[in-house]
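Dear U.,

Please find below the material for section 3 of the report. The protein was modelled together with 2'-deoxyguanosine-5'-triphosphate; I have listed the sequence and SMILES used, followed by the predicted complex structure.
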Amino acid sequence: MASKLLRAVVLGPPGSGKGTVCQRIAESFGLQHLSSGHFLRENIRAKSEVGVLAKQYLEQGLLVPDHVITSVMMMELEKKQSQHWLLDGFPRTLVQAEALDRICDLDLVINLNIPFETLKDRLSARWIHPASGRVYNMEFNPPDVHGIDDITGEPLIQREDDKPDAVAVRLRKYKEAAKPVIELYKSRGVLHSFSGTETNKIWPYVYTLVSSKVRPVHSKEAN
Ligand SMILES: Nc1nc2c(ncn2[C@H]2C[C@H](O)[C@@H](COP(=O)(O)OP(=O)(O)OP(=O)(O)O)O2)c(=O)[nH]1
Ligand SMILES: Nc1ncnc2c1ncn2[C@@H]1O[C@H](COP(=O)(O)OP(=O)(O)O)[C@@H](O)[C@H]1O
C-alpha cells in the first residue's frame, strides 16, 4: 500500500454525522481528525482574538468569514504536516477549498448525504463534552451516566447553535455554500458520496473506502 500521507476531507450538512464518522476513521486508521468547529469552540473558550471574533457567528449559526477559518486551519495543518489527516467542517466554501488547494492535493473526499428531517432530529438530541469535542446523542450513543462525559466525568453541554432557529439557518447556509465545493471535488474524481439515515449503515462502506488508501490500525496485516 502507498506510503504517501493521506489528505482527506469529510463533507456533509450539520448533524450529518461528520464528527461521528471522523472519530471512527481516526480510531480505526490512526489519522489525525481536525475539526474546524472544534478549533473555533476552543478559541472561544480561550477568549483568543479569533475566538472573540468567531463567537457571534457561531451563536447565530452563521459561517465565520473565510479568512478567519482559513488562517486557523492553515496553522493547524502546518503542525500536522508529517501525519495522515482528515478534515471535518473545512473547506465549507469555494474560497476555502481554493486555499486548501494551495497547500495540498486531496486524495479522498467523503460526502455524507442525509435527509433534512433526520438532521433536525439529531441535532436537537446532541450533547457534547466541550473540552474534548466528544459527541453524544441521547438516543444514538448516550453517555453511561446522563449528562456526564464517559471519560472525564465532567458535565456535557448542548451547543447554542443546536437550538431550533440556529439549526434551520445553518442547514440553509450549508446547502448554498457547499454546492460549488461538491461540484469541484466531483469534477476531480475524488468525491465519494454516501446516502442514508443511519451512520452505522454508512460506516462499513466508508471503512472499505478508507482501507483502500490506508492500513487499519488493528487489522491482522498491521499486527
Ligand atoms: N439517531 C442517530 N443519531 C446519529 C447517527 N449518527 C450520528 N448521530 C448523532 C450524533 C450527534 O448527536 C448528532 C450529529 O452527529 P455529528 O456530531 O457526528 O455530526 P456532524 O459532525 O456532521 O455535525 P456538526 O457539523 O458538528 O453539526 O447525530 C445515526 O445514525 N442515528
Ligand atoms: N469551514 C468553516 N467556515 C466557516 N465557518 C465555520 C467553518 N467551520 C466551522 N464554522 C463555524 O463553526 C460552527 C460550528 O461548526 P461545526 O462544529 O462544524 O458544526 P456545524 O456543521 O453543525 O455547523 C459553524 O456553524 C460555523 O459558524
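For the text of the report, you could mention the following: The chain has eight helices and seven strands.

Regards,
Y.
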